[in-house]
Design brief:
Layout (H helix, E strand, L loop, with lengths): L4 E2 L14 E4 L3 H12 L4 E4 L6 H6 L4 E2 L1 H7 L2 E4 L6 H9 L8 E4 L3 H4 L10 E7 L3 H10 L5 E7 L5 H11 L7 E3 L2 H32 L4 H10 L2 H12 L10 H13 L3 H16 L2 H8 L2 H12 L3 H12 L2
Parallel strand pairs: 2-3, 2-5, 3-4, 5-6, 6-7, 8-9
Antiparallel strand pairs: 1-9, 7-8
Length: 326
């Protein structure tokens, strides 16, 4: 199934003419998107609480207000604070300032997809979600190099929601390489799936590999450098992004290619498929994870999970090797 791809020619920045655009949260994404929008000629203000991001926003020359005041002044409000605090901050400080005809822009579909934001009637809700860290959103904009971006119109109260979304996407550089028509549900599900299925599987592979190799008498230094401390996997993933998963195989020796493809053919993916399907359907799409995370004490629960993970022998070996590095 293919999706519509929007490019610069599909986006009309006049959709933002005469409208005040506010970035709410001048963190990693907020700082990058605010700078890009301003450089694209869009009237910008910033809303931020009194924290470590406040001074950099002022130093960058933005008119900075409290989050509540910026939301009240804005016609288009970009919600760029962390997912876990969005529902309470939105209800208490942002929603009261939004009026009919305004646009709420989210960069993560999570809280929209799971119904955790009570957006006032008459307000458009759109998603402009860069698939790139904030620093790269800025540097790629400056170099005029595109990056992947998801866009959607989640609520079209005015009839111009998608037009506004594409204008914002173009303003931050998100249509230069093509913005993918998506949805908050799709963006959130894919993001959560990567976090809860793919990366845990990768971490488990490394942990298990360490245990097997360590039991056979190989040194920690050799094992961990072979697995990832050398940085080789990062180089491989960079090549995958340019050449594809199989395309990058040509950069390896024939012995390596033969071993990788032979091993791939011997794996039984059925158990992994069952695990991944369960995560997607039972944890993510069902809303169970969102309900659990909303009810949790984030700092305490994260500390518990991290403490448990740190008990694995791989973690101890990794700490020892990293401590020896210059």
């Amino acid at each position: 199934m293919s999706a519509t791809i929007y490019t610069d020619s599909d986006a009309d920045q006049t959709a933002l003419d005469g409208r005040v655009v506010a970035v709410l949260g001048h963190g990693n994404q907020g700082a990058a998107q605010a700078a890009n929008l301003r450089d694209s000629g869009i009237e910008m203000i910033v809303g931020n609480r009194d924290d470590e991001y406040l001074a950099p926003a002022r130093d960058a020359g933005f008119a900075v207000f409290s989050i509540a005041e910026a939301a009240r002044r804005a016609d288009v409000a970009l919600l760029l604070i962390p997912d876990e605090v969005q529902p309470s901050v939105f209800a208490e400080q942002i929603a009261p300032g939004l009026t009919s005809g305004n646009t709420l822009v989210v960069a993560s579909g999570y809280n929209v997809a799971f119904g955790l934001l009570d957006v006032p009637a008459g307000v458009d809700v759109v998603m402009v979600a860069p698939r790139m860290i904030g620093a790269a959103v800025r540097t790629r904009y400056e170099r005029r190099v595109g990056y992947p971006c998801f866009v959607s119109a989640e609520r079209d109260a005015t009839g111009d929601a998608l037009r506004t979304a594409l204008a914002v996407a173009k303003g931050i550089g998100g249509t230069q390489a093509g913005a993918v028509a998506s949805s908050a549900r799709e963006e959130a599900a894919l993001d959560l799936f990567s976090e809860q299925a793919i990366w845990p599987a990768i971490m488990s592979v490394f942990q298990t590999a360490y245990q097997v190799l360590h039991a056979e008498g190989f040194s920690d230094e050799a094992i961990l450098n072979e697995l990832y401390l050398s940085g080789e996997p990062a180089e491989i993933f960079a090549r995958v992004a340019r050449s594809g998963l199989l395309g990058q195989l040509g950069l390896h020796s024939q012995t390596s290619q033969y071993g990788q493809l032979r091993g791939l053919g011997r794996l039984d993916p059925s158990e992994l498929a069952r695990r991944f399907t369960g995560v997607l359907r039972d944890d993510i799409l069902s809303g169970d994870f969102a309900r659990e995370w909303s009810a949790a004490d984030p700092e305490r629960r994260l500390a518990e999970l991290r403490a448990h993970a740190e008990q694995h022998p791989l973690a101890a070996a990794e700490r020892a090797l990293l401590a020896e590095q210059p």
